[in-house]
Amino acid sequence: MLCRKLERVAYFFLDGTLDAKQKRIFSKHLKLCPECEQRTTIHRRIRIFLKKRLARLVAPARLKQRLTRSLRAFAD
Question: Across all residues in the chain, what is the average pLDDT?
């Protein structure tokens, strides 16, 4: 079913990472399918809410240093 297939790319659509063709297909489907449009709107609102809330959090410098060291060690 088309809805199930498009469900997998919804997050890429919301991130803006779909190529132009996929974006057109997804946008067209949203215009024709109220259920998918509603679900996508809900996910978009949740993402906006979380971005606003999480943008206020700042990791302590020590934590950033530890994470950086861990990531470098993992990459090596």
Answer: 88
- What span, in angstroms and rounded, lies between the C-alpha atoms of 62 and 75? 20
Q: What is the 3-state secondary structure (H, E, C) of 39-67?
A: HHHHHHHHHHHHHHHHCCCCCCHHHHHHH
- Bigger pLDDT: 74 or 56? 74
Asked if 31 and 37 count as a contact pair (C-beta separation under 8 A), the reply is yes
d(CA 14, CA 44) in angstroms, rounded, equals 7
Dihedrals φ, ψ of 16, to 5°?
80, 25
Q: From its phi and psi, is residue 16 left (phi > 0), alpha (psi between -120 and 50) or beta? A: left
